[in-house]
Design brief:
The protein is about 20% helix and about 20% strand. Helix 7 runs antiparallel to helix 8. By secondary structure, the chain is an alpha+beta fold.
């Protein structure tokens, strides 16, 4: 998505309005006779003997915020004791419209000239507690009604410290989301409470994934705790316990070299090529483990790294539009990709869209464009009008405004607006099959995203009209955690579009998009850097790697990858590994990391993974009972009498690879 979408006229917007309703006071109802299952990580067993000099009980009772502090002050300490009080009810922050401080880090379009934008919107959050885990009743994107900010609140922790006078301390991660845009600003808040009182609430924002607007925000405000039974509280606790239990196992990125010592992996390559201060997080999903890097902010490590909210930007072109098209094809048949846009989008019933199919649109090859130069249209005034439009009508009008310039399927021109048109077409197609009231995002949520056990963050999407019922943007507007990225990548890559052994995506379309069919590499793009060309198919880019890039690529290999505005990449390597990173300094350097991840032994589809002390991941190699075993270009001998050997790989296998030269406007 082009950075120019951010050029909206903030001056015409009115003061902040928040539509989050306060729940009136009511006494806590009688508790059920049974309890929700414990969340993994409980119970806390610390003594409560915490030495604290920042955000002490005195600070939270009567102090004031004069700036941001180390994130350690918001994190669960090693000596934390089990909470003696249970929070259930509504937390309301008072006076936020004028409270607190703001420091600009980067402001390309002078957003901070609008005073109201430099403060939190009024916030009212229903919370329940299960052991030491504090759970928001509303998960995912909250449409607040604010002129500037929507909100995401994550699960936090509650614990006791000896210095807090018998009160329980709470810490919650949250994120501000720019209205009608995909920028995310991650923050933290904390407070003390008991059965009758609540301290002031300290909050701060010291991190973002947003190329054009970066800032620190902080404050300390009075708060109200309205105690009452939250509707569905037991279900909320059960759901959160299941959510945490289903997260993919994580290890530090450094563990790759110890888990797979024979691969000769240089883990310093992961996260390289990106300015450290711009890097939100990174990781390698492989073998059922998410090997993760840190989540750094301007005040140290983010204490809820596994819940840091990450924007999709154009990763949504794969993780929403591409997956939906493949799922529709799997469910309703092979005719789906050849459906005509004009038959399913009434506004597109024009000569310009005659003959344009769902597949053409997913491939950015509608033939409707002003300029075929790389990202000329995406960065132009027509696309600015598309991104700025919030209501469905003007947004669709802008999306369809490009002139007809080539036959469908013949010329690649990148348009985020085309994915919006495709999303609308698939929405109307679904209604014809599943009935009125069907919603394309809720459909794919229930069909694929929920069975993958993704977080609630990805179960909502941004839509037109700043509404929970508008048309999904399609090509941007989703939100992920590290765990979500690892799971979706594994689903597309190592799992071949299967969940529990059941094929969920059309296997032919997925194989083509994943570059597993040499006869169909997709459409050649106009992206070309240092002699490298790129392919595009169903929302997935692809780049060929050879031994000229790194000796580890002993034969040419096509690597499909997802790419998002500002510096976001998820590279799906053919050995089943995925390398991903999120950043916001227009940097797309991932070649060195891809080469290191490619050293891992192949996994998925009949393969296996080798850990330390194990020579082969597929136990049927000697017997021939496991498939597929065929002689490839790396086989020294196909003599059946040979026994497996360990080794260190070929000389030079850890040679560095030049940074992938790509446009800073890559989506």
């Amino acid at each position: 998505m082009s950075v120019l979408y951010a050029r909206r006229r903030w001056a015409v917007l009115t003061v902040l309005v928040l539509a989050l309703a306060l729940v009136p006071f009511s006494p806590l109802a009688a508790r059920p006779a049974y309890a929700a299952p414990a969340v993994p990580g409980d119970p806390l067993t610390g003594s409560g003997a915490v030495t604290r000099s920042v955000l002490t009980a005195g600070d939270l009772t009567s102090g004031a915020a004069t700036g941001t502090v180390s994130n350690d002050a918001f994190s669960l300490p090693a000596a934390a004791a089990a909470p003696t009080h249970t929070f259930e009810g509504t937390l309301t922050l008072n006076g936020v419209a004028t409270a607190g401080g703001f420091r600009t880090v980067k402001d390309t379009y002078h957003y901070a000239a609008t005073a109201a934008l430099k403060h939190l919107p009024p916030v009212s959050i229903d919370l329940v507690q299960n052991g030491s885990h504090v759970i928001p009743a509303v998960r995912g994107l909250r449409i607040t009604g604010s002129a500037y900010w929507n909100l995401i609140v994550e699960g936090g922790r509650a614990w006791n410290e000896n210095g807090d006078g018998g009160r329980t301390r709470v810490s919650l991660p949250f994120a501000l989301v720019e209205r009608n845009a995909n920028c995310v600003h991650n923050g933290l808040l904390t407070f003390l409470f008991d059965d009758s009182k609540i301290s002031r609430v300290r909050y701060q924002i010291t991190h973002e994934t947003c190329e054009y607007f970066q800032f620190d925000m902080w404050g300390q405000v009075r708060a109200t705790y309205s105690r009452h039974t939250v509707t569905g509280d037991t279900n909320l606790k059960n759901a959160y316990a299941a959510e945490v239990a289903h997260r993919m196992p994580t290890k530090s990125i450094s563990a790759l070299s110890t888990d797979y010592p024979r691969a000769g992996i240089d883990t310093s390559a992961f996260g390289s090529g990106i300015t450290a201060s711009a890097l939100s997080t990174y990781g390698v999903s492989y073998g059922g483990v998410n090997y993760v890097g840190a989540c750094q902010t301007r005040q140290g490590a983010y204490p809820y790294c596994n819940q840091m909210v990450l924007p999709s930007y154009s990763l949504a072109k794969t993780m929403f539009a591409g997956i939906v098209l493949m799922r529709l094809t799997q469910v309703y048949g092979s005719s789906v990709p050849s459906q005509l846009i004009r038959d399913w989008v009434s506004e597109a019933d024009t000569s310009a869209w005659s003959g344009v199919t769902f597949q053409d649109t997913a491939n950015m090859a509608t033939g409707n464009y002003s300029s075929s130069a790389f990202e000329s249209d995406e960065s132009g005034s027509g696309m600015t009008a598309f991104f700025d439009a919030e209501a469905y009508g003007p947004k669709m009008t802008a999306a369809l405004a490009f002139p007809h310039s080539a036959a469908p399927g013949t010329q690649w021109v990148y348009h985020s607006s085309d994915t919006f048109v495709l999303a609308r077409a698939m929405q109307n197609y679904l209604v014809s099959k599943a009935g009125a009231g069907s919603d394309i995002y809720r459909w794919i949520r229930d069909q694929v995203l929920v069975p993958l056990h993704l977080s609630p963050d990805v179960l909502t999407t941004e839509r037109t009209d700043n509404s929970a019922t508008g048309q999904p943007f399609g090509g941007y507007g989703l939100f992920y955690t590290q765990d979500d990225i690892a799971k979706v990548s594994r689903f597309l890559n190592a799992d071949g579009g299967k969940i529990g052994g059941v094929q969920m995506l059309d296997p032919t379309m997925l194989a083509d998009a994943m570059q597993q069919n040499p006869a169909n590499r997709g459409i050649t793009t106009t992206a070309n850097s240092a002699g490298k060309t790129y392919q595009y198919q169903d929302g997935l880019w692809a780049r060929q790697f050879t031994s000229a890039d790194n000796p580890v690529f002993t034969s040419p290999v096509y690597v499909p990858f997802m790419s998002g505005f500002g510096g976001i990449t998820a590279a799906l390597l053919p050995n089943g590994a995925t390398y991903y990173y999120f950043s916001d300094n227009d940097e797309f350097g991932w070649s060195a990391a891809a080469a290191q991840a490619y050293k891992l032994p192949a996994t998925g589809a009949g393969g296996g993974t080798c850990r330390a002390g194990q020579l082969l991941g597929n136990g049927g190699f000697e017997t021939g009972t496991a498939s597929p075993w065929t002689a490839g270009d790396k086989v020294v001998s196909d003599n059946a009498r040979e026994v497996p050997h360990s080794g260190n790989g070929s000389p030079g296998s850890t040679a560095s690879v030049p940074r992938t030269p790509t446009s800073s406007r890559r989506r």
